[in-house]
Amino acid sequence: MTAPQPATKDHQPLILALPKGRILKAVTPLLEQAGLTPSDDCLGDSSRKLRFPTSNPNIDVVRVRSFDVATFVATGGAHIGICGADVLMEFDYPAIYAPLDLGIGKCRISVAQPENLPHSADEWSQWSEVRAATKYPAITRRYFAARGINANIVHLHGAMELAPMLGLSRLIVDLVDTGSTLRANGLREVETIASVTSRVIVNRTALKTRPEEITAILDTFRAACKTSLPLATV
Ligand SMILES: Nc1ncnc2c1ncn2[C@@H]1O[C@H](COP(=O)(O)OP(=O)(O)OP(=O)(O)O)[C@@H](O)[C@H]1O
Ligand SMILES: O=P(O)(O)OC[C@H]1O[C@H](OP(=O)(O)OP(=O)(O)O)[C@H](O)[C@@H]1O
Fold it and tell me: Where in this chain does the record put each ATP phosphoribosyltransferase catalytic domain (predicted)?
């Protein structure tokens, strides 16, 4: 890649949307490898700033909630982003192209229920309705609809594991990695809906209007992934 030239009035920096939290930590070594090190205050919690320059004068980073990364990229507010496949599956935005799996943020999205209930998904074939707590209403509806079951959703934004014990729902649909959060709350995984890793995502229009710059960034991420993948796990 040729040395990046500074952005000018007529040539605005590309915006890369990153999720705060665990993915930001995991992706930092990849950003460094890709020559996109954000300014120091991007990684700390003390700054109230949300937009940061990087070591590449043509690329600025914005730090947003993980679900909002997809929305910023789909609407064109950001040209590129990094987010979990769970978020992409939930929104299914046609404006987003997800060309690169970074292999970080590995987990799965699963259905879980209290340990003391019969735990075979076969039992569900008897049901026409189920109440499920989740922050993934679309994924949950689709999953149960494919089995002929109408899912009544209790839409939460965290602590889904509390829902069955407090009578909000029979099931939850949530992310599982080690399974320790489920176990600590008397739940067990019944079925995996999908495996999840984090992807580099691109706004399709931006890819058409600024193809060389975006392809160059994708190439640097690809190269960075090859060299640092074994270290870059959440
Ligand atoms: N336990 C986990 N193990 C590995 N990856 C995870 C785990 N939980 C979440 N992820 C991945 O990290 C992404 C961000 O999750 P994180 O928990 O950091 O944010 P969040 O709490 O969902 O976001 P916010 O605080 O913005 O609502 C998820 O979309 C998923 O792809
Ligand atoms: O299987 P485990 O290794 O226990 O990981 C699963 C937990 O991780 C995520 O929560 P997170 O830690 O991000 O907290 P929050 O979403 O409730 O804020 C997810 O929502 C589960 O609660």
Answer: 65-221
